[in-house]
Amino acid sequence: MTLIVEPRIVKISTRTEIDIRRSLPHAKLGRIGAWVFLDHFGPTNQVDGMVVASHPHTGLQTVTWPFAGQVHHHDTIGSSQVLRAGELNLMTAGRGIAHSEKSLQVGAELHAAQLWLALPDNVRGIAPSFEHHADLPKKEFGDASVTVFIGEFAAVVSPAQVFSPLVGAELRMPVDGQTQLPLNPEWQHGLLVAQGSVVANGQPVGLNELAYFDIGSSDLEITATEDFVGLLLGGAPFEEKIIMWWNFIARSQEEIVSMREHWNLSHEDFGTIVDDIGEWIRAPELPNVTLRAR
Ligand code: MN
Predict the structure, then answer these.
(1) What are the extents of the domains in the chain?
(2) Contact 218, 262 (CB under 8 A)
């Protein structure tokens, strides 16, 4: 039986006007390999669909993948990068970075996914870095066009830097198209339907749903029941216990407390961002319960 995750709708407390569908983390599914966070939003024509002022990250990589539209990224190590559909922005937060993101009004609607990869303990304190990749490997598998934007899939390797064995790929297939994709049986996998609908290994998967395939699955047979756009996510099980709170990933409550205070009391330490949003987002109050690693 394939697990189907239906996203929950979240409104983030910034000027982002749109509903966000969050599939990870989810009550039914904590992570897929090192993929610990998955937001999917749009398509939308709303003005200022995404306007997220400066905010920090630690211990993770942010992966931004637009299916349509454009997003302007700024960060505290001096990056200023317009991201277009079919291109990847990858920000390795390491010990700490802040960034801002703003969708551009370019006629095209905004439709994107934003994901986080947990960094393994031995590298989570590295210096922050930013990569933009416009030239990514693509290959046809049956009727599916597969762009491997991060990690590796069936010997197709993305140039983006990763720190654990994983894949992130965009799949596109016309209605009635069929494909059979080889999966690494030692990895966990997920298939997000971002547009259209499919039948995956015999199981219908509707728009915005995430189908999960546990270790032991060695292939994924997909038939598109409508014009389909989706993401294939996978990775070796990420066994480390982590605490994810707000925009931070840490290993203990004490670390989270200190990361929060550091940002709220001296966010200038992270560096400065020159953008046309010109604000920064304070970390919220911590909950009254002890945060537990999971
Ligand atoms: Mn962010």
Answers:
(1) 3-235
(2) no
Who wins on pLDDT, 201 or 12? 201
pTM, entire model: 0.97
Mean pLDDT of the chain: 95
Q: If you measure from the C-alpha of residue 53 to the centroid of ligand 1, how many angstroms do you get, rounded to a whole number?
A: 9
Burial of 216 (0-12, 13-18, 19+ CB in 10 A): exposed
Q: Distance from the CA of 215 to the center of ligand 1, in angstroms?
A: 30
| Residue 107: strand pairing partners | none
Quote the ligand 1 centre to 100 CA distance (angstroms): 7
Q: Hey, what are 72's tokens?
A: 């302007």
Could you tell me if 230 and 197 are in contact, meaning their C-beta atoms sit under 8 angstroms apart?
Answer: no
Cα of 52 from ligand 1 centre, angstroms: 8
- Over its C-alpha atoms, the chain yields an Rg (Å, rounded) of 18
The phi and psi torsions of 255 (rounded to 5 degrees) equal -65, -40
**Do 152 and 232 meet the contact criterion of CB atoms below 8 Å apart?**
no
Residue 143 DSSP class? T
Task: Tell how far the Cα of 62 is from the centroid of ligand 1, in angstroms.
Answer: 7
Q: How far is the CA of 135 from the centre of ligand 1 (A)?
A: 23
Check: CATH 3.30.460.80 for 3-235?
Answer: no
Q: How buried is 270 (Cβ within 10 angstroms: 0-12 exposed, 13-18 middle, 19+ buried)?
A: buried
Taking the C-alpha atoms of residue 102 and residue 15, their distance in angstroms, rounded to an integer, is 10
Taking the centre of ligand 1 as the mean of its atom positions, its distance from the CA of residue 42, in whole angstroms, is 17
